[in-house]
Write a structure and sequence with these properties.
By secondary structure, the protein is of the alpha/beta class. Helix content is 41%, strand content 15%. It binds iron/sulfur cluster. Iron/sulfur cluster binds next to α4.
């Protein structure tokens, strides 16, 4: 008998919610096809008290194997940039819009494949559940997939990068490029230029966070 496919992951969410119970429950999710070939579902990492949440696209090869977000080359670059912007990684929450690694095999390598709209929409309940537990002051989308999923299909990173807006999930929301884009720069000079811009964006986010925290407090969004 063919099992009926559910529209999104909401049917798999646990009744009792904590970051840990979400991590455990997501291992059973079959709301889209991506669970079939991935090693495991990778939810976010960081404290539930985080004021700042970074949201990328999906786990990569290293994340899929280790079960942790942002531990591969892009994650290491993000770590360095956070340190250069004086943002403490242990105080931020890092996650992705899609929780299983989508890839195609080329020889022995597993090459990242962009998730489609159906997969992104199917996975959104996991992200929303994480955000509702954390109640961040600011969410930062990394890359176009996260930005368009969270800030709207018409969002254009090239035009709107560095701008801030209100969002139902946080007093402030913004987007910047994904650190993997810097790794794909054609040469060292361009990679350096993009890295410097990336750090400048992070510094702006750090400064804006104080304002967002005040806005959250005055609107009653603050964590009790
Ligand atoms: S990608 Fe998301 S919706 Fe799809 S199976 Fe994995 S956890 Fe479920």
């Amino acid at each position: 008998m063919t099992r009926k496919r559910v529209e999104n992951a909401s049917a798999y969410l646990p009744e009792s919610r904590s970051l840990n119970s979400l991590r455990v429950a997501a291992q059973s999710c079959e709301a889209c096809d991506l669970y079939r070939n991935a090693t495991q579902a990778v939810l976010g990492a960081g404290p539930v008290s985080a004021k700042l949440v970074f949201i990328g696209e999906q786990p990569g090869n290293d994340e899929d194997l280790q079960g942790l977000p942002f531990v591969g080359p892009a994650g290491k670059l993000l770590d360095r940039a956070l340190a250069d912007a004086a943002i403490d990684r242990s105080e931020v929450y890092l996650t992705n819009v899609v929780k299983h690694f989508k890839f195609e095999e080329r020889g022995k390598r597993r090459i990242h494949k962009k998730p489609n709209t159906v997969e992104v929409n199917a996975c959104q309940p996991w992200l929303e559940a994480e955000i509702l537990l954390i109640k961040p002051k600011m969410i930062v989308c990394l890359g176009a997939t996260a930005a368009q999923s969270i800030l709207g299909r018409t969002y254009r990173l090239t035009k709107e990068r560095g701008t801030f807006r209100e969002h139902p999930w946080a007093a402030c929301a913004t987007a910047m490029i994904h650190p993997s884009a810097i790794l794909r720069a054609p040469d060292a000079e361009e990679r350096h230029r993009q890295y410097e811009e990336f750090v400048a964006d992070l510094k702006q986010i750090k400064n804006k966070l104080k304002q967002c925290s005040r806005a959250a407090a005055s609107s009653g969004r603050s964590r009790a």
